[in-house]
Write a structure and sequence with these properties.
globular, 228 residues, two-stranded parallel sheet, 29% helix, 14% strand, alpha/beta
Length: 228
């Protein structure tokens, strides 16, 4: 049986101020894509609205862009995948063994409000499939409730981009909310690395979360291990 991963990407291209662009942090997709591909997994891209995925400009510059991101941008077939992503209503959750939420500040806007993504995530989680996120991807889990009405992340040990990292990245005054604080308010047992921006991954049952862009490969590796 082929293992199938549903990878979630954003459709948003800017902060509240249109003069401040954002989008998908490309390496958070490419590091995981390569790790999943190395394991022989089949991968599908989905976004809240379907269609085009803007790229975070900072993720395309030194020192953040790496060989996997450069290779993706140089591959017309791979770039085309970011122009034709599926929408949640085109996805059958039963076809997938795991969901992986990528990050970039853009996801703070369109991930939480997507009821379609919430429904997919709920079904996967409740049947024991893997639910995972990296960096701001955990914003896609904040509003997801289970069939009993409880929040998926309530009581779960998890991580994601920290407020301290927002401050150090100098975006704390432009982000729409404090994701770390929201996760804690919903009952999550939030953890983070002692040193900002280093790789940090938390596994709690079938929930796998990574803290920041540098955690993408380790997060995907943890997902693969959980699937095996």
């Amino acid at each position: 049986m082929t293992t199938r991963i549903l990878t979630v990407v954003t459709n948003v291209g800017h902060f509240d101020n249109p003069d401040h662009p954002t989008g998908l942090w490309l390496s958070e997709l490419t590091h995981a894509w390569q790790a999943f591909d190395d394991n022989g997994f089949e991968q599908t891209l989905v976004s809240p609205a379907g269609g085009n995925v803007p790229l975070e400009p900072r993720s395309l510059k030194f020192p953040y862009v790496d060989k996997t991101a450069k290779a993706w941008r140089a591959d017309p077939a791979k770039m085309a995948l970011l122009e034709t992503t599926a929408s949640p209503d085109q996805i059958d959750p039963g076809d997938f063994d795991a969901i992986y939420f990528t990050g970039g500040h853009a996801v703070m806007y369109d991930f939480p409000e997507s009821q379609g993504l919430q429904a997919i995530t709920r079904e996967l989680y409740e049947r024991g499939a893997i639910v995972s996120s990296v960096c701001h991807g955990y914003c896609g889990l904040l509003d997801t409730t289970l069939s009993d009405g409880s929040y998926l992340i309530a009581g779960k040990t998890m991580t994601g981009f920290s407020w301290r990292e927002e401050i150090l990245a100098r975006v704390n005054k432009v982000v729409p909310y404090n994701a770390e604080a929201r996760a804690k308010a919903l009952g999550a047992q939030y953890e983070k690395a002692t040193i900002p921006f280093v790789s940090y991954v938390v596994v709690d049952g079938n929930l796998v979360t990574g803290q920041n862009p540098g955690s993408a490969k380790e997060t995907a590796t943890a997902v693969a291990a959980a699937l095996r």
